[in-house]
Each structure stands twice: as C-alpha cells, then as structure tokens.
Design goal:
The chain is of the alpha/beta class. The chain has a domain of 203 residues: NAD(P)-binding Rossmann-like Domain (Rossmann fold, 3-Layer(aba) Sandwich), CATH 3.40.50. The protein has 11 helices and 12 strands. The strands form 4 sheets. The protein has a 6-stranded parallel sheet, with helices on both faces. Helix 5 links the parallel strand 4 and strand 5. Helix 1 crosses helix 7 and helix 10 runs antiparallel to helix 11. The longest helix is centred in the N-terminal third of the chain and has 22 residues. 49% of the residues are buried.
C-alpha cells in the first residue's frame, strides 16, 4: 500500500486531503506545523526517514499574501527553503513530492489562459517565494517532483472569500467587491482529488495547473454566493482594485490553462460554478447557515 505524508495537514487544503485519503483507506500521516516545521532541515529529513512515505504532499505554506510584502524572508523560509528541505529529503529517500503552488508566479497581465510553460514573472513577495519553492522541487526532483499551481481557493475549513461573503450577506446591506480581477475560484476538495489522481497515475513529473475550469471575477463569484443563499445578488456592487488598495499587487488576470492534464490522459478540474454549487452545503453549514445547507443538500 502506498504510504502518504501530508505536511501542513491542519490547513484548508490539508484537511480536505486528509479526509479524502483517510476515507479511501490510505496509509496516511498528517503533520501540522506543531508536529513538523519544514523550515527545520534536520527535522524534515528525520520525518521523511522515519515515516518512509512513498508520496509527500506539501500543504505547509506561508499564505498571508499581504504580510509577505513586509516579511519576505520569513515567507521565503517556508515557501522556498521549506519546500527545498522536503524535496531534498524526498530525493534522499526515494519519495515523490506534490508541491501546491500559485497563480501569483505569473505577472497577471495576460489576456488568455497561461499555459504551464509560460515564463514566470511574479510581482509580489508571495509570488517570488512560491516560485522559489517550485524551482527547488523541479531542480531536486526532476523525475519525481510535481508542482500543482492553484488559485482563489475556498472550502469548508479556514478563512476564505466564499465564507466571508456568506458572513457579509447576513450582516451588510451591500458589499463592494472588485470586478477587474479575473480568475478561477477553486474548491480545495477538488484540488485534493486532483493531487491523489495525479499521484496514482503514471503522469510525467513537472508543472500542472490545478484550478477550476472556466473563469469569472470576484464580484461575479460573490453574486453567485448571494444567489445560492437566496439573497438579492444586486446587493453585491462593483468596485476596482485601485479603490481597495492592498499591500501586495493582485494579478488582474489569473486564468490558467490546463493542457498538461490532457497530455497526461487525465481530466482537469470541473467548472468553477459546478464546484461552488457542490461545495456550498458544507460551506454554508460551517458558517452556521444550516437552513441554507439543508435546502441545497
């Protein structure tokens, strides 16, 4: 039986991945930050040596995009050096590594979906640190390293945009949301399934884009959330990125292409709207909207 190790197992993606693997009867060990700090090279090597996993999924990450602008060294320690520590340990002990990454490795100025081999050009500290992790994995594990870029993640665990919109619908008359950023809302449970499918396939190593199919804007995503709540979607009003200035620049265009899945004979993720509808009962329940969850189940 394949042995799995999931780092960052208490995070939004880590929890969904642990649930999926445990539910399938897999031999899986999940370690949160208190159990394994991947910035500690010796501890990381020892964990991989002791647990002898066949597949490692690195869900440990610095994800505070704005904070990374003023704490880039700390973010790099996790996203870059931590990934390198895991990759080196996997290389030493013969394990494959699945490394989630981000759309922020691109400059966000495109007008058509970014292919997997498009030149990277991150504009934020977060993007630079995640790119460093990608490069370490691909360099140290040329035959067994997999990078899965994802974006606009949401799910039932942890803070995210969809859960925030559910809360704001109950507490605000109107909500202003940016309508000039285009991307692919992606359910963490879908990403978890994609990781497992990829790891159980004979697909070649390298870069894959694990985002939902289709594309939308943050405002349209918010309006879809309001519609699922049975609320008036006109209560979501448009604004611009300039009006809601943030420390880290947001990509105006974060739509990723999925050609690599087809070339590997694997299906890409579902359409973003279908996945949002499928996920919504569990997310609404997590926000205490039990009636909504019951109506949609």
């Amino acid at each position: 039986m394949t042995r799995w190790l999931v780092t960052g197992a208490a995070g939004m993606l880590g929890q969904d991945l642990m649930t999926l693997l445990a539910g399938s009867g897999a031999d899986v060990t999940g370690l949160d930050r208190s159990a394994l700090d991947i910035t500690d090279q010796a501890a990381t090597e020892q964990a991989v040596r002791d647990l002898r996993p066949d597949v490692v999924v690195n869900c440990a990450a610095w994800t505070a995009v704005d904070d990374a602008e003023s704490h880039e060294a700390q973010a790099l320690a996790v996203n870059g050096d931590g990934a390198a520590n895991l990759a080196a340990a996997c290389a030493e002990h013969g394990a494959r590594l699945m490394q989630p990454s981000t759309d922020y490795v691109f400059d966000g100025t495109g007008t058509r979906p970014y292919p997997e081999d498009h030149p990277t050009a991150p504009r934020s500290a977060y993007g630079r640190t995640k790119l460093a992790g990608e490069q370490a994995v691909l360099r140290l594990l040329p035959d067994s390293g997999y990078v899965l870029r994802t974006a606009w993640l949401y799910g039932a665990h942890g803070p995210n945009f969809v859960r925030t919109m559910i809360r704001l619908e109950a507490s605000k008359d109107t909500v202003a949301v940016v309508n000039d950023q285009h991307g692919q809302p992606t359910w963490t449970a879908d990403v978890a399934r994609q990781i497992v499918m990829l790891a159980r396939s004979d697909a070649p190593p390298g870069v894959y884009h694990a985002t939902s199919s289709g594309a939308t804007t943050w405002m349209e995503l918010a309006r879809e959330v309001f519609r699922l709540l049975g609320a008036d979607d006109a209560r979501v009003t448009p604004t611009t990125s300039d009006e809601l200035a943030r420390p880290a620049p947001r990509p105006a265009y974060s739509v990723l292409g999925h050609a690599r899945w087809a070339s590997a004979g694997l299906q890409p993720l579902p359409d973003w709207r279908a996945s949002l509808h499928a996920s919504f009962p569990s997310i609404a329940a997590a926000e205490g909207r039990q009636q909504v969850a019951s109506n949609l189940s």
